[in-house]
Amino acid sequence: MANTKSAAKRDRQNSGRTLHNKAIKTRVKTSRKALKAAIDAGDKVAAVAQYNKVASAADRAAKNGVIHKHSASRIKGIYARQIAALA
Hints:
This protein is mostly helical. The protein has helices spanning 5-41, 44-63, 69-86. It has a single domain, classed as Up-down Bundle (Methane Monooxygenase Hydroxylase, Chain G, domain 1). The chain is elongated, with a radius of gyration of 17 Å.
């Protein structure tokens, strides 16, 4: 329990931010799962379409500070290599 008004406010802000950040991370994870399914199925057209969604979600998360920009870059690089190997 917060002892001061400012600490109580920080508590309220942090709980809201936690929910927001969790939603963004979940969006990235969900799109990654869909991309992985497309890659496992060997469908390059669907994989490229889903890759664009993953890249967008990862870049947005990095822009907002939810994940590090290098993490976003690593996510995109991993899947770009896997898609290139489908050819």
